Structures are given as structure tokens and as C-alpha cells.
Amino acid sequence: MSQLDNRKVKKLMSYRWVVWGILALAYIIVFFHRLAVGVVKDDLVNAFGISSTTFANLGSTYFYVYMLMQIPSGMLADSLGARKTVTAGTLVAGIGSIVFGYAPTIGWAFFGRLLVGLGVSVVFISILKIQSEWFMEREFGTMSGITSFVGNMGGILAQTPLAIMVGYLTWRTSFALIGFVSIAIAVLCYMVARNTPEEIGLPSIAEIEGRQVNRSDGKKPQLIKGVIKVMSNPRTWPGFVVFAGFFGAFVSLTGTWGRSYIVDVYGIPKVAAANYMVAAVLGLAIGSIVIGKFSDSIKKRKLPMIIFGAVYVACWWVLVFAGGGKPPVAILMPLLFTLGFTCSVFVLGWGCSKEINPPEIAGISTSVVNIGGFFGAAILPPLLGKVFDKFGGSLPPVELYQKAFMYAFISAIIGFIFTFLVKETNCRNIYKDIGGRG
After folding, report:
1. What is the pLDDT of residue 424?
2. Which of 154, 223, 263, 371 could disulfide-link to 28, CB 3.0 to 4.6 Å?
3. What is the pTM of this model?
């Protein structure tokens, strides 16, 4: 390789972090909105006079539109490119957050939440697409974990920091402020991010790794055929169900009912109760990096999913059954941290999906699996909400939350069962090796 090429490679290795970093800022906004409504539950109920089920549906609006947008997000990432896709999405999310903050009625609040979900739905798949273009194949699991870690910082901001900010600024001003921050990030994304190294005259990662470059004629992948190919691949679906079962249970706790659980069952003040949810979100953030790196190091995807998935189910068992539905408060913080840490094993499902489908449709293949998590997060919290509405006046708090969280425990078990059906890829694309059949 010439001296000029060496300089270009060095520039690529540094500039890729700039590209990824800008998109990671947008992903922090994604996670903030994902978990924020749980912190302002009482404010929303008081402002709009809504029931537990309506509150849960308001939170789930984000997840419904997010879920429905995952395949379109993959198609946009593979065709329009990550730069324009994330710019437009983050702009829409910013507008939605402002609408939500100043909503005069519950209908406007639903509309704002819908815009937020629509906007942020395109960010993560675009980041995965960027990773496939700017980072080595062997780095994918690690980078997915780092991305999840950074995103979870937004989830942490949506706990105690948000509770404090709401206390000072009101919930309306807080959501409007985050909307304006989102718009600023959208502008930065358009100015700084690039879809591929070639767009700024740098060699591709495929060239550096000595792989075949699939851009010879400059054509975009055939998107509809790509969707059909991914969805007809039976090996795509176990990761989908794992993500649905694990993440649906996690969001039901951290994004909807967790803080209320700590307040109602343990009598802990609201701001302090948010710290317990921070433990779970921090566990998810740290676990995403550790488990992603561990998977890449041992060159296995399936084995870590089974091991950590088993611990995740055990954590839910303790939360639901220990102490008759009220585990000792002394173990609650480490229990929630471990629950979040082991839940993060779902990040390996994105790598699996990318590695058992054609590499040129990485955006579509990861988006299909990504639907799973938001399917679970959309349907499970309202199911728990119905339990609260039906039994809220007749059961004491411990029994009420135990009955509701039983559904989350079952969801985690279903996800764990499907870890055994995941196809082992040994952390490389095996689509051609398995004859394109999965």
C-alpha cells in the first residue's frame, strides 16, 4: 500500500469516530424518549385526567410507530443513506417533542408522541448501517454494544436527571427543551456525517479487509426483494423473538411501571425511586459493551445469549416471587442492575441477523430483528395497564404489582426459549456458506 493510501487509511480510522459520534448523539435522544414518560406519569395523569391503560397506551404510541417503521428504516438506510435519514428523523422527533411538551389535550400529546416515535425510529438502523460501512466485520458486536451503551445514557437522563429537571422547569418545558436540542443535532448530522468512506475519497472497509466490494455499478440494492429475502429466511426470526421477549419486559419495568412500583411497594420518595431505574438502565448500558465485546472475543453469538438469558430470567423470578413479590430492599439495586446487564444480550441478535443475510442489505436484515424489541415494548405495557385498572382498587400494592409483573416474567421466558434456536455464525457473515437458505 502506498504512503498516500496509508494516510487515507489513518484518516478513515479517525474520522469514522466523528461520523459515529454524531449519530450516537441522535441515539441518546432516542433512548431519552423511550423511557421518559414513566418519570412524568403522575404529571401526565394530572394534566389530562387519564387512566392507567391510557397512560400506558400513550407511552406505547412511540413503540407502535417505531415498530412499524423498522423495515422502512432499513430501506431508507440502504437507499437514501444514513446521513439524510437520520437528519430528517431527528428533525421530526424534535418537532414531536415540542408538540408533546405544549400539548393542550391528550389527543395532541398522542400526536406529539407519534411524531417522536416516527422520527427516532430511523436512527438505530442507520447507525448499524454506518457501522457496516465504517468499521471492520470483527468489530460489529463490540460497536453494537458501545452504541447501545451510549444510547442508554439517554435512558439514564430520562430517570433521575429528568425528574430533577421537571421539578425545576415543569414537564412541559423539559420536553420542549429536548425538542430544540434534537433539532440542533439534526443540523450537525447533515453537516458532519457521511454514508461511506468513499464519499470523502477514502478507501472502503471492504478494501482494507481484502473483501469483495459490492458497489461496482453504483446500483442500490433491490429493496423489496431484500425484505422478502430477509423475512423468508427462517434464521432471522429467533433473534426477533428474543428481542421481543427480553426488551418488552425491560421497558415495562424501566419505561412505564418501575418507578411507581418502587414508590408504591417500598414507600421510597419519587426522585430516589428513579435511582433504582437508573441502576437497571446502567446495567443495560454496561452489559451492552461487555457482552458485545465478549461475543466478539470468543467468536460466538448463541452461547452468550443462552448463558446471560438464563440469568435474566432468574432476575425476573426473584423480582416477581422472592419475598412474596417484595424482594428485600437491600438486594433491589444490585438485582435491577443485573437484570439490565443480562437483558442487553439481545444486542447480539442484530449481529446474528446481519451475519445470516446478504451483507449488501445489512440495514434491512437488522431492521427486521429490531422490530421484535418494539413489538414487545408496544404490547406488553398496556397489558400490564389493564391489570392495574382492573385490580388497582381491590389488591394491595405488593400483590397488584406481582400480578402485573407476571406477564413480564412470562415474556422473558419466551425470549429465553428462542435463544436455543439462534443460528451460530462465529461472528462472520455465513450467508454464502449456508447456501443463501439461512
Report:
1. 86
2. 154
3. 0.75
